[in-house]
Amino acid sequence: GGPRPLPGQEVSVKVLGALEDGGLVERDPRLIFVPGHGDVVQALELGVPTMQPGEVSFFLAAFPYAYGRPGSREPDVPPEAPLLFEVTLLEVRDGPDPQPLPPAVRLRLGSQRRERGNFHFARADFAAALRSYRLSLHALDGPTTAPPGPEEEEELQEQRVKCLNNCAAAELKLGRAEEALAACEAALRISPDNGRALLRRGQLLAEQGRDAEAAFVLRRALELDPANKVIHTELSRLAKRQSLPSNT
After folding, report:
1. What is the CATH number of domain 10-93?
2. 3-class SS at 72?
3. Distance spanning both ends of the chain, measured CA to CA
């Protein structure tokens, strides 16, 4: 009884997940997530919002709605394996994000969502990956119950840079070069010497024909990582292009 979960609300569920041969691969007496945030497999994302508190449901999930074509190491799910989930909806409540949380909780939540984004990225679901990375940034930037200490602040900044670099990679996979460039520049505002962001920014500037800017950025990346073959290749490509006679 009771209303079904609304968008943005947090749910608590009891979950059992089994393979076709009956082997149990998941057992969580109280899994907490917000449907739509990409923190769980798609079968639960789609199925739990149809339930009412106290209801027990069974979801038979084909592999695209479970752990995808590659399967998973943890939990141990074979490639292309369908799963049967037994789900009990325990509780529905408003989501926790707007509330101040301790810095350590913000860090843990941000890390979990970034790892979930990596899960989606590895399965070529780049839109879901981007959504998880943005949710990770939202968690990292949320209000805290107390100012973070120096080590916590440093770790928050490191996680933000990782998320922004991952956002740039996902945006590129979705064919959005301008958004990818903006994510790189946001990462560099936090960490001006981040080699990954410098390299990707240089590549994107070169693709836009902004060769002088691209060369400047790539040379800075090379100073930080002189042995990087990709940077050498990009600079060589730029030099060759600039040496060609221009068409009239």
Report:
1. 3.10.50.40
2. strand
3. 75
pTM for the whole thing?
0.72
Phi, psi (5° rounding) for residue 87? -125, 130
Q: What angle do CA 121, 164, 181 make, to 5 degrees?
A: 100
Which tokens go with 59? 């979801």
CATH of domain 97-190: 1.25.40.10
Domain boundaries, the chain: 10-93, 97-190, 192-241
- How many angstroms separate the Cα of 126 from the Cα of each of 63, 91, 122, 172? 18, 30, 9, 9
Is 122 in contact with 111 (CB distance < 8 Å)? Answer: no
Alpha carbon of 233 to those of 51, 77, 152, 159, 203: distances in Å?
54, 40, 37, 29, 11
Q: Bridge partners of 13? A: 31, 89
pLDDT, tens digit, 9 for 90 and up, residues 94-122: 865 557 889 998 898 899 889 889 988 98
CA distance 227 to 202: 17
Q: For residues 48 and 28, give the distance between their C-alpha atoms in angstroms, rounded to a whole number.
A: 15
Closest CA to 68 of 55, 58, 81: 81
- E strands, the chain, are 9-18, 24-33, 56-61, 83-94
Amino acid at 219: R
Residue 159: count of CB within 10 angstroms of its CB: 20
pLDDT in tens, 144-154: 888 999 999 99
